[in-house]
Amino acid sequence: NPGKSQISTYPKLPPGAYVFKVRSSATGDFHNAKVASLEFTISAPFWQKAWFIAISLLVGFLGIIAIMRFRENRLRSAERLKKELINTQLETLKSQVNPHFLFNSFNTLIGIIEDDREVAVDYVENLSDFFRATLEYRDKQLVTVEQELSLINHYFFLQQKRYGDHLILKTDLDQDALKSLIPPLILQVLVENCIKHNIISKDKPLTIDLYTKEQYLFVSNNKQPKPYKKASTGFGLNNIINRYKLLTKEPVIMDNEEANYSVGVPLIKNV
What span, in angstroms and rounded, lies between the C-alpha atoms of 167 and 224? Predict the structure, then answer.
């Protein structure tokens, strides 16, 4: 019938093989009408095919493994950092709270008391503040350079009372550097190494410089090594290097020049 549509639509057929059959009649009698057939197949969309499902499952499985390994590596890194921090705390406390250090501190204090009781009070206050700050930092992963510098000032005050004007500390740190972050007790260890390994006298004063250069904080001193070396495991510097490996890709820099020795540690942005 030319007045009727000759198009038939089946929009919701599921994937599979089909045979489309049709009979036609001009009189309306289909008894002897011939059947015309058309075979066709509807393919499943790619996301329903076995290969896609298999790949999806494999990718999902690998993704889960990757997430688990990433989490495991983070936990291991955190554990290693915690261990390094504990080691630093123990080493720093051991290097300070030992008979030699206390002997020098109390010996200096006795001499100050005999000369000036007010200065002796300042000495005791700085000694107390130094140990208090050391204990406060023990549970922290990072501190600001400003906090660490406050600890250095207490430590340097104690040492200068022993060595007098023959020990000099110079700092050249801008506000950006002071607000940056570093692992705690890093500067204290570096400054202590400067004092421990060099001659300090009237003829050979020791100058320690703290300055920044290209996102690094440097601790530098003029080289005047002692004729004899104290027994050292190199723990302090190795510990600093290992701790920074867990925090940043930037390396610790050591520059052993003819006249000066310096160590540079990366500054971490405080965000």
Answer: 13
